[in-house]
Amino acid sequence: MKEKFKEYLMITIGMLFVVIAIQFFFIPNNITAGGVTGISVVICEYIKGLNVGLVMGVLNIFLFIIAFIFIGRDFGGKTIYAAMGISFINWAIEEFFTPMAVTNDLMLSTIAGSLFLGTGLGIVFTQDASTGGTDIIAKILNKFFHIEMGRGMQIVDIIVVIFSGITFGIEKAIYAAICVILTGIVIDKVISGYYTCHQVIIFTNKTKYIKEYIINDIDRGCTIFTGEGGYTGENKNIIYCVLERAQLMKVRKFLKENEPEAFVIVNDAHDVLGKGFEKIE
Predict the structure, then answer these.
(1) Radius of gyration over alpha carbons of the chain, in Å?
(2) Which CATH number fits the domain that encloses residue 261?
(3) Transmembrane segments in this chain: where (predicted)?
């Protein structure tokens, strides 16, 4: 129960970031951010008096119905909560308040809005949820036309950018394209930052000494391999382990002080599951 509450709390925080981007950066400056949000902004420009949040809600409901018909029950409660929650909050803000643009500078609005949007979406994605919309369209394209999910989302966003150009002019379309690119980058950074650990490979002659430090002082497991140097022909012991950032810093300091001759390779590792890391679900 506590874990479920934490998940929905994080999703809610992500939703608020998304709403801030939409209401205080994108809508006041007629910047479309791709997906259902961008489509809603364009529709409301043509049909005056419509509420962007209301249009988002209607589109999401329609897309969820399509998803259940053609894809099946792949969209859980968390995704429905996130998609409809964002639509509701947007509707409430526009209905009862008059949101003002934080800045009228288009480039600042694009950058700041993308940071908020990408961070919000990234947080939602780390909780194994999504905001519906583009994801649903991409899944449909993937199922019936065998188009990869990422490419399907790009196709939808490109179409939205084109309509943005037709509606608001080529300048706004360029900013919309920048927004789509920046948002994708920020989402990846948020997700990788949330899960990133480090694969550490250590070539050393002090295997036992370093192994004991990793196990006893760092409280992390490791695996020992035996290899042969291609140039020297000598046997080499290789220590392999996966560490979090703080643990990696401690190991680097330990090696600097105690085994400066070690040869070390460090790679980022995403989605590390089991054995003291994320649960396998």
Answers:
(1) 24
(2) 3.30.70.120
(3) 7-26, 46-72, 79-100, 106-126, 147-168, 174-197
- Measure the CA–CA gap between 86 and 256, rounded to whole angstroms: 50
Distance of CA 281 to the CA centre of its chain: 19
pLDDT tens column, 157-183 = 888 888 888 988 888 889 988 988 888
* Interstrand relation of 235-243 and 223-228 (parallel, antiparallel or unpaired): antiparallel
Asked if residue 276 is part of any domain, the answer here is no
State which residues form the domain around 218.
196-269
Instruction: Please indicate, yes or no, if residue 281 is contained in any of the structural domains.
Output: no
* Whether the Cβ atoms of residue 180 and residue 34 lie closer than 8 Å to each other: yes
pLDDT in tens, 12-51: 999 999 999 988 999 888 888 778 888 888 888 888 888 8
Strand pairing partners for 268?
Answer: 198
Whether 127 maps to a domain, the answer reads yes
Cβ atoms of 198 and 250 within 8 Å: the answer is no
Q: Who contacts 281 (Cβ-Cβ below 8 Å, separation ≥6)?
A: 128
Predicted TM-score of the model (pTM): 0.69
Residue identified by tokens 């300048």 is 171
Q: How far apart are CA 240 and CA 202, in angstroms?
A: 7
